[in-house]
TrEMBL record:
Keywords: Membrane, Transmembrane, Transmembrane helix
Keyword Transmembrane helix (UniProt): yes
Protein name: Flp pilus-assembly TadE/G-like
Transmembrane annotation, as ranges: 24-44
Keyword Transmembrane: yes
Superkingdom of this protein's organism: Bacteria
Length: 152
């Protein structure tokens, strides 16, 4: 009769041999998860950087629209049409559409008192790694405003 410990050890050895290769599947799974996390972080960083760049352009557009206003009755008075026209002129002059994909002046208006210009810009961002996990053409939208200043 066989020793009881040997029988238990033989069964254990058979169990260990059945699990060879299982750790490789686990490692591959962890690598896939890590790559997905890295691609998501790259996409988020890319979208954030493009949004900051677009915000800078929107600030410049709002400033150009507010401070290029015509004087009326000793006070600076903005209108919706003048804010839109000056915004479009500034965007064309700076060639901003070449730096952003699908750039759109979504809104340009003046405040009720005519002293502030409000501008809304929209664009799209293509992250560096695009696939089924990270889509292409992520929309971004920024808003900016600027008060007109009269220098004497």
């Amino acid at each position: 009769m066989a020793h009881p410990r040997r029988q238990a050890g033989a069964g254990l050895r058979g169990h260990v041999e059945d699990e060879t290769g299982q750790s490789m599947i686990l490692i591959i799974g962890y690598v896939v998860i890590a790559l997905l996390a890295i691609s998501a972080m790259l996409a988020a960083t890319s979208v954030n950087l493009e949004a900051r760049r677009l915000q800078s352009v929107a600030d410049g557009v709002a400033d150009a629209a507010a401070n290029g206003a015509a004087l009326g009755g000793g006070a600076v008075r903005l209108s919706d049409s003048s804010v839109r026209a000056r915004s479009e002129t500034h965007l064309g002059r700076t060639n901003a559409s070449a730096r952003f994909q699908a750039l759109n002046l979504a809104g340009a208006r003046a405040s009720a008192d005519g002293g502030t210009a409000y501008v809304v810009l929209e664009a799209q961002v293509d992250p560096p790694i695009v696939g089924w996990f990270v889509p292409s053409g992520i929309p971004i939208r920024v808003e900016a405003d600027a008060r007109s200043a009269m220098n004497q």
